[in-house]
């Protein structure tokens, strides 16, 4: 006989498994650095074997979907590129919907540059309509000065994501929120950020799944980016405790996830 708590827990897992679409964050949910987290292989196999629609979401704009696919392949997961959605793709989709065929000066890596090119956005370092900053390892004073000059001349400032820091194999490194700050300060202009917690990114991902919001669940490990963006997109959320959030941290937030579990493998219980 199940206790009331065990019945509720069983019902929770069944409700999640009944969903048609799954949007999942990556770092802290699927892997840490170059290490796959427990239960992820089984969870991905279950998604594929049960014909679920799924997308792995990342706020990083550095890598292309092809590069992310190869990264998971090195960890033993066969996930084609079409199952990845990055803040670079979201930024390109946002700009092409706002101003088709626009021009931009870009500080970023291949993931961002390729996404913009594919969306028909041309690179321009003379009189662009936008200055776009993404995750990059080639940041320098000359690029900051160029961006400041262009924004002061009227270019609009866009950030692929608002994260102050991000994870890397070497530890914590600056992300877009930190990189774009000197440009904001020098120009007295605030950037518009496309990535999480902006719900626009989750809505774009859900649109790619062709699922209704009530048929989709969003899985993440951060309350301040993942859970809030799912909540504001009217999508059920699963907070996994395999990343940066602990149960002790939940009282610090005025909102709650729909479900809480240790890791994605728990969904198969």
Could you walk me through the main structural features you see in this protein, from its secondary elements to its overall organization?
It is a single chain. This protein is α/β, with parallel strands linked by helices. The chain folds into two domains: 4-59 and 196-268, HAD superfamily/HAD-like (Rossmann fold), CATH 3.40.50.1000; 88-193, Rossmann fold (3-Layer(aba) Sandwich). It is 37% helix and 19% strand. A six-stranded parallel β-sheet has the order 5-4-1-13-14-15. Helix 4 packs parallel to helix 5 (110-118), helix 6 (141-152) packs across helix 7 and helix 8 crosses helix 9 (223-232). The two termini are 17 Å apart. The model has no long low-confidence stretch (mean pLDDT 93).
Annotate the secondary structure layout.
Blueprint: H1 4-17, E1 21-25, E2 31-32, E3 35-36, H2 40-49, E4 53-58, H3 65-74, E5 84-86, H4 87-98, E6 103-107, H5 110-118, E7 122-123, E8 130-133, H6 141-152, E9 156-159, E10 165-166, E11 173-174, H7 176-187, E12 192-193, H8 199-209, E13 216-220, H9 223-232, E14 236-240, E15 259-261
Parallel strand pairs: 1-4, 1-13, 4-5, 6-7, 6-8, 8-9, 9-12, 13-14, 14-15
Antiparallel strand pairs: 2-3, 10-11
Helix pairs in contact: 4-5, 6-7, 8-9
Q: Key features?
A:
alpha/beta; Rossmann fold; 37% helix; globular
First and last CA, distance: 17 Å
Can you summarize the main beta sheet?
6 strands, parallel
CATH superfamily of the largest domain: HAD superfamily/HAD-like
Q: How many domains in all?
A: 2
Physical arrangement of strands within the biggest beta sheet: 5-4-1-13-14-15
Mean pLDDT: 93
String of helices and strands: HEEEHEHEHEHEEHEEEHEHEHEE
Radius of gyration: 19 Å
Alpha-beta content class: alpha/beta
- Total strands: the figure is 15
- Tell me the β content: 15-25%
CATH class of the largest domain: Alpha Beta
Helix content: 25-40%
